[in-house]
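Please, structure for the following, as tokens.
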Amino acid sequence: MEYCLFTEPQQGFSYDDQLAFAQSAERHGLDGFFRSDHYLRMGEGDPQPGPTDAWTTLAGLARETSRIRLGTLVSSVTYRVPAILAIQVAQIDAMSGGRVELGLGTGWFEREHAAYGIPFPAKRFDLLEEQLQVVTGLWQTPDAETFSFDGEHYRLDAAPALPRPVQSPVPVIVGGGGPKRTPALAARYATEFNIGFVAEDQISAAFARVRAACETAERDPATLKLSVALPTIVGTDDAEIERRVAAIGQTRAQFDNGANLIGTPAQIADKVERLRALGAERVYFQLVDLRDVAHADLVGTELLPLLPR
């Protein structure tokens, strides 16, 4: 089992806030630091200091950490053309010594696109499939050869397929609750399938669908890592839990919805054990308040030692 911190910096947090969380993850033995890829705050509240770009941030963290995995959960296909994304990720993979992972999805936050003038086509699964083809195709092209692609949305003419990533392959994460196309794309292109923000019965069903998709694609399901991302509040007692819930503008009743992780380290460890029994091999603890570094530290010092490995 692997355990990562997962954050939402668009809610009003700086590069330094993210650095503190990444360094906490590294210091206490967690496996990775992942962030969303968004440019606009969701919901009410102060958006200052403004958005940080995901891949610019990860480039900085690549040079300020030495062990943890770094990646997006997930980048939207609407933000970047795939060849440029492949170059960015390959470069940061080299900057990190081979620790980068690319999460890629269709995108969903239409208001964000309108705010920043980013095109938001109604149908985006074809974009996702072509981007997965281009990105993985560029990385897999042998030395001294070029990569060409003639799709409906993207065309590449004899691209040099450089720079070369350190990892081969670079881990690619595809996820979501879609019943057919998402599992099929994960089975064909991904190294990891992720499902987030849902209860255990839905996690189990999503895992079953992607395993079946692997079998249809004649891929061994055991070669696809299965992961879960869940909002998390940890506290040593009720008062600490209530304080952290209030800090993100919710009540305990709102947050404790049957899917999220909330409670003492021992209570959350029990839930993680159930996720492991469902087949999860990696858990992303989504911590929303990046100014509460003590929360990240608590995950590392009190929760992590109780978790199955």
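The chain has a mean pLDDT of 97. The first strand starts at residue 2 and ends at 7.
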